[in-house]
Amino acid sequence: PPVIRREDYKPYPWIVSETHLDFDLGLDATRVVSKLTVARNAKADPADTMRLNGDGLELLSVKVDGEVVNNWRMDGDDLILPLSSDAHEVEIATEIDPSANTQLMGLYASGGMLCTQCEAEGFRRITFFPDRPDVLSVYTVKMRGSAEQFPVMLCNGNEVATGEEEGERWAEWHDPWPKPSYLFALVAGDLVSNRGTFTTMNGREVELNIWVREEDLPRTDHALESLRKSMKWDEETFGREYDLDLFNIVAVSDFNMGAMENKGLNVFNTKYVLADQETATDADYDAIEGVIAHEYFHNWSGNRITCRDWFQLSLKEGFTVLRDQLFSQDMQGEAVKRIEDVRILRAAQFPEDSGPLAHPIRPDSYREISNFYTATIYNKGAEVIRMMRTMAGPEKFREGTDLYFDRHDGEAATCEDFVSAIEDGAGLDLKQFRLWYSQAGTPRVTVAQEVVGDGLKLTLSQEVPATPGQSEKKPVPIPLRLAVHSRANGATGPEQLAVLTEAEQTFEYPLAGPDPVVSINRGFSAPVRIKRDVSQDDLAFLAASDDDPFARYEALQELAVGHLVAVASGDRSDADRAAGEDALAKALGAILTDDALDDAMRGELMTLPSESYLFEQMDRPDPARIHEAREGLKATLGTTLASEFHALYDRCEAVPFDGEGARGARKVKTQVLTYAAASDPAKAAELAAHQYDKADNMTDRQGALMVLCGLECPERTARLLDFYNRYKGNALVIDKWFTLQALSLHPQAIEHVKALAKHDDFTLRNPNRVRSLYMAFAGNPQAFHAADGEGYRMLADLILELDPINPQTAARFVPSLGKWRKIEEGRAEKMRGELERIAKAGNLSRDIYEQVARSLE
Ligand code: B3K
Ligand code: ZN
């Protein structure tokens, strides 16, 4: 497959001012007639042909200005149409089979309904079209089909007219806002809606609908409420008002990702719509709120201003992730949300940035764009924009985004346009900062401190590691929020912002008292790794009393990482090990009993660094030893702090579902169970079974079952069976049932996964189900990294079997095997062997080909 390069960008030679689409809908055969009004683009190199992208289409006819023509030719899947004058009407008829579309890109059938997914290049699977984000057009769409099968027909924009005769229904929709083809959407099926309204800041009333299958209607209130909150927040925080009279969200159960921001018609994975107390956890509720916000916010950051080409993807995704993070911080609490976002960044993006698939947030080349919807584009992209906001301050940053929205409204813009607008509007100099867009790799910052007189001299140095294709790196501006506290008198120093721009630089700050302790990268102000020599006592001090909640979390993590890495590497003497456990028990004990902490925050602080995070901190480690070290620590802490844990559990257990601080209490309860499971499995099984049995909500029930899943006990079998029977037929909850077993700490988890893959409810056709089993499995270090390589074999088999069905979803599993260079040699060879086996198989999709080739390079 050819490589597409950012530097080769050329504007499209034709302007497509209007697009008329006519759909004759059928699950097995849909006919599409598209009429395009085209004119030469004066800003592009002149061309005497028009390239229309296609993919798997059956072409029925081509007309130019009303006459059938046959002078077109095919170039691969694209249609090349000669055009002689400056303006034409082009009409193309195609036929597609939505039922056969297992890739879930373009128009496809899902549970008897029809729906679309067009980003990034799905529209070309519906009709021949310049399927690129810089070709904006005004769409008018007519749909026709069986009134019984498709009583509801939806498209972008507003409904203009409908009619029905002789069992056939039709509807015409018009979207006044010019848009790229990737934002096109169509839905037809038997759906009902939870309807609401929102009155915008200028007093316009907008109709809101959450469309679902009838039986799901009772679980849509939270989604509707989340949408209203998002609309209000975007007006207040970014000055963005909604711009149509209608906003539709449709929930679909077969979907490749979370959701899609099609203009006026968002299509969602049911996972990010449906919730009630009985079937959704607190985390599910938050995720729904966050994804609804994300897609809604795209209406401005993505739709009103879109991307010039797909290399600019982070323009809309990085910015929109930042917007949804800030929204969720306001809704759910700043500190806890920030900790969660940093945890995601470290779990998903840091490994990407240090592995074979590393790429800058604005990549330079790709073969398959679907492979670039990554944690780097999304989450690091958000961090990069967050740094601009930190340097400018929120008010100035808002002036920058106002200017951006003003300046580029209606355009297909670039990352450079965004940076310039922030520069001009916020009054920042971002010349050097632009390196964050072009360089991959997570910078490492080394901190050294020295007391000089009554001040602290802080020497900061940075290094950006080499990444594939980028051996030489330049220093980047790194904004570090920091404070200098005193351990001796407990005084906290004022917060400062140090922007490290050189390879090495010194900063000086006044002391708050003797024994200075530096609190650095507070709030995780920069997406970097910090390296420093810091004593356990200093970390314990920060964990107990830093005034920045993120820094408290970070200090505890650092304390645990230092200990666990040393234990797992085998270079801790027994005495050192005991001292490390002691320090951690003291620090954690303080957290468990600190009355000033709310439980939501306590729950975060109680979370030990994950095995994969520890893995990242070590040089070609053996994952089994990390597992052993971490479980061992949990057991020790569980024993040492048993009475504190139990007191905490009892207090939290007394909080009713809707009581004050109930969410935090639920989080803490399950955390306590995880420690108990390691230290006193019999007691843990009893407690967890009890929690399961009396649960009146999914958070408690799932938490309890998670703990039981990791134990070998009779309670496990009984509750797993109960859970399955209780929720049979509810796909999203059955997904949880698969996930809990695939992720479990149970020593036979790998055997369980094999059996589950043969379960009647397992299917490769549904991405949620595939991920529920295999993403969980790939994230279960103990099972996936089985020393004999069986886990790797299973994943490679899955990739090969799934690729012909759904390459986009299959490709998501490749990065797990791509870690081979970072693991101990025995496993490394087995992982690489599986990648090679995939590479040798014939007929690979572009998606898999690219990911595997890059992973082997
Ligand atoms: N923009 C979509 C992602 C499309 C992914 C296509 N492979 C959802 C989002 O980021 O909001
Ligand atoms: Zn997005």
UniProtKB/TrEMBL annotation:
Residues 441-532 form the Peptidase M1 alanyl aminopeptidase Ig-like fold domain. Its cofactor is Zn(2+). Keywords: Aminopeptidase, Hydrolase, Metal-binding, Metalloprotease, Protease, Zinc. Residues 536-857 form the Peptidase M1 alanyl aminopeptidase C-terminal domain. One of its GO terms (biological process) is proteolysis. It comes from the Bacteria. Residues 29-183 form the Aminopeptidase N-like N-terminal domain. This is Aminopeptidase N.
